[in-house]
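Hi all, posting the design record for the shared folder.

TITLE: backbone redesign
STEP: 1 of 1
STRUCTURE INPUT:
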């Protein structure tokens, strides 16, 4: 797994985790334009690591990038993952976060976000991180941990706000999985803003990313006039992108 990010400085830090079959470079092309305006780019740094490749049995042993194994498709509210693999991936994300904090970035200015499996890893990493972060954004994801992990979620982690996007027409990570994930977070006492899109499948669209951009800026206390106007329309879909 390789990560590339500029050195810490004042402002926010967004760690973006791609879906299985994707890459950091692909994610950068989709997401970075929404933070490219001069008033934003100088204050919000972005990092797009790429997962290692793995053989995925449910895809005929195809070798693709993945943060952890994919047990079945589609992903439902009852899908069970290999928790050891999930926790190994969480450990990797925590190492990235710890380095950022050690370099001087305030945890309250750090955001862990991702699409599909990347979104699942993002929320798992936030739940098990000992500090309150600026926020977590999940696009078409799910919670990849058993509810028994609830007792391992610290009081500080429960204060991290979550923004969750999910298409009701998603055929790879079913809407029920996203809805159940947000309900689980609310059971923990966490703030989870859930945004449902009736006709959206397993993809990201401009409307979501513009809202995401504004959410990040608002959390950082930034008001950039005309910020959303700098974004390019985005629509992405990866057929090898369940969790």
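Okay, here is what came back for every position:
SEQUENCE:
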């Amino acid at each position: 797994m390789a990560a590339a990010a500029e050195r810490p400085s004042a402002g926010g830090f967004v760690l973006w985790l791609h879906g299985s079959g994707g890459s950091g470079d692909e994610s950068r092309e989709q997401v970075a334009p929404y933070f490219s305006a001069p008033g934003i780019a100088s204050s919000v740094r972005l990092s797009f690591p790429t997962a290692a490749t793995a053989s995925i049995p449910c895809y005929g042993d195809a070798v693709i990038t993945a943060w952890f194994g994919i047990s079945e498709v589609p992903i439902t509210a009852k899908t069970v993952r290999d928790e050891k693999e999930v926790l190994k991936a969480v450990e990797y994300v925590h190492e990235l976060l710890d380095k950022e904090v050690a370099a001087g970035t305030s945890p309250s200015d750090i955001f862990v976000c991702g699409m599909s499996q990347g979104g699942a890893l993002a929320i798992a990493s936030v739940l098990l991180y000992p500090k309150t972060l600026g926020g977590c954004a999940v696009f078409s994801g799910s919670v990849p941990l058993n509810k028994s992990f609830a007792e391992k979620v610290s009081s500080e982690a429960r204060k991290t706000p979550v923004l969750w996007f999910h298409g009701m027409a998603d055929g790879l990570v079913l809407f029920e999985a996203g809805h159940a994930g947000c309900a689980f977070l609310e059971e923990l006492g966490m703030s989870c803003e859930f945004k449902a899109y009736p006709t959206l499948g397993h993809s990201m669209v401009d409307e979501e990313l513009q809202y995401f951009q504004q959410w990040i800026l608002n959390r950082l206390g930034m008001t950039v006039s005309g910020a959303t106007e700098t974004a390019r329309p985005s629509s992405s879909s990866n057929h090898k992108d369940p969790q």
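COMMENT: The first strand starts at residue 12 and ends at 17.
Let me know if anyone wants the other runs.
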